[in-house]
Design a protein that fits this description.
The chain is mostly helical. 71% of the residues lie in helices and 0% in strands. It has 25 helices and no strands. Helix 14 packs antiparallel against helix 23 and helix 18 crosses helix 21. It is globular.
């Protein structure tokens, strides 16, 4: 690390500073913004695997599905180390991740079409629940295999520019553009679902969800393919890839990564049902969050004007606490107001007080909305850059593999517990025309919002030990600037033809 830094400093004043330079072309910038804004656009709770999809549309037992997915998690944990080692040791003239990015396109398209049409196939062919479960599991196993081997292409978003300021600027632009349209598909779906749920609109829920998802998925694939065509890698990798064991050990020396991962694991512990079934079956007001979110909407767009200032004034850690704190306040107030009146006459069944409570907390939360969107992504980049700063090389795939390991073990356990709670404690009845008992409605509300508050509070504790403060972050990126510059120039000198390599060309 010291030799590379010295080499970078010896380049002299002719080497343009990375943090004052823009690397991406206009075409690539547009592609990144469209991909980040719309590439992951979906239908919200109607996505395959979501609560409404599992319980209302595909209609399979959540408990049986959760138990069946234990095997999938074990399979996933076996192939992840192998594929992570392959990705982190890849070196090609196109870069480390680009080949995987190209290879993922066709399998992703085929799997997407299959899972979207699965509910229609099950209805038209009159599948039994066992057959439904079997075909969905086939999809999950194939999808996991494809993601494991070709998912490395997604890491290009970490290395398309070595300039953190350029990356933050593009993230802000992408999230601002995305917020204008990204929520629209799920909001339209919610409105139509409420009309169907209250017998205003006469259409099969299965056909409605399948057609809606197919349209949205197609629109999301266009910017994804565009980004795959135009994206490039610019952070030069170490000349020799790290040994798999050495790369794995470097993960455990990355304190910010361990702390952030632990906090995320605690935050993701969601016992019970999600909010979607509560809004759909208890309030019969799936659009509540959309309508109650209208007062906070202009605040969310205005918040983008403060992101750059907040980044200069505060550390990533401080901004994380601010954004998570406002969310925790909104969730707590919503739950406590819903408990007023008890089980039979509780406010959790009343649209007006629940909507007003949500709107008030949401307004406060939206003041940091843009910052939360950017910080969530920036922390991931920051802990990867920290590893490069300390170890001298990057191991993106290994890092994601280790984070995924923890997450998969947690979800494997939680999914089984949640499936059992929903069927055996809440006594939830699935299917298109199902009606819930008073006790089931109350328990649905409690399990949707109560236990999560405990873990949302606990997730603050690990982040107290996050050690990248504002001065450390500035020093880290200054050192990386010299290191990457030296590495890039070294590659130029070794190029026999005198042409710039892909990683530094622009």
């Amino acid at each position: 690390m010291a030799d590379e830094e010295k080499a970078g400093r010896d380049l002299g004043n002719n080497q343009q500073a990375y943090m004052n330079r823009l690397f991406c072309t206009t075409k690539e910038r547009v592609s990144y913004i469209l991909y980040t804004a719309f590439g992951t656009m979906g239908t919200g709770d109607y996505e395959p695997g979501g609560e409404i999809w599992v319980n209302k549309i595909y209609n399979i037992s959540p408990f049986k599905l959760a138990k069946a997915q234990v095997g999938l998690s074990i399979y996933d944990m076996i192939n992840d180390p192998l594929t992570a080692a392959i990705v982190d040791n890849m070196r090609t003239r196109w870069g480390k991740f680009k080949p995987f990015q190209w290879l993922s396109i066709i399998p992703a398209i085929l799997l997407g079409i299959f899972v979207i049409t699965l509910p229609s196939l099950s209805t038209s062919l009159a599948w039994t629940e066992a057959q439904k479960l079997t075909y969905y599991l086939i999809y999950l196993y194939v999808n996991e295999t494809v993601n494991a081997f070709f998912g490395g292409g997604g890491h290009i978003k970490n290395v398309f520019t070595p300039n953190p300021n350029e990356r933050t600027s593009l993230l802000v632009s992408a999230n601002f553009v995305g917020d204008l349209m990204k929520k629209l598909p799920s909001q339209i779906m919610d409105i139509l679902w409420d009309l169907i749920n209250n017998d205003v609109l006469k259409i099969s829920k299965v056909k409605f969800v399948v057609r809606g998802k197919l349209i949205v998925w197609t629109l999301a694939m266009i910017p994804t393919v565009l980004w795959y065509i135009n994206s490039r890698e610019r952070v030069a990798q170490s000349e020799k890839p790290p040994q798999p064991v050495k790369g794995l050990l470097s993960v455990f020396r990355n304190r910010p990564l361990i702390v952030y991962t632990l906090s995320g694991l605690i935050d993701d512990i969601t016992l019970g049902s999600g909010g979607s079934l509560y809004y759909s079956d208890v309030l019969k007001f799936k659009t509540m969050t959309t309508i109650a979110g209208i007062p906070g909407s202009p605040i969310s767009y205005a918040s983008y004007g403060f992101v750059t200032k907040f980044r200069k004034m505060f550390s990533t850690k401080t901004l994380w606490f601010l954004t998570r704190g406002t969310t925790f306040f909104r969730e707590t107030s919503f739950f406590l107001v819903g408990l007023i009146g008890g089980r039979d006459k509780g406010w959790y069944q009343k649209k007006l007080p629940m909507s007003l409570t949500f709107a008030f907390g949401n307004c406060l939360e939206m003041a940091f909305y843009a910052t939360r969107n950017v910080i969530g992504t920036e922390i991931n980049y920051e802990v990867l850059d920290y590893s490069e700063w300390k170890e001298g090389y990057r191991v993106e795939a290994t890092v994601e593999m280790m984070k995924g390991y923890f997450t998969k073990v947690q979800k494997m356990i939680i999914n089984v517990i949640n499936g059992s709670l929903l069927e055996n404690w809440v006594e939830y009845k699935g299917g298109e025309g199902s009606v819930q008992t008073q006790q089931a409605k109350y328990r649905l509300f409690v399990t949707a919002f109560g236990p999560k508050l405990i873990f949302d509070a606990l997730c603050f504790i690990p982040m107290l030990f996050y050690n990248i403060d504002k001065s450390t972050r500035e020093r880290m990126y200054l050192d990386l600037e010299y290191t990457r510059s030296a590495r890039a120039n070294s590659e130029l000198l070794k190029d026999d033809d005198g042409a710039k390599p892909e990683s530094v060309n622009e």
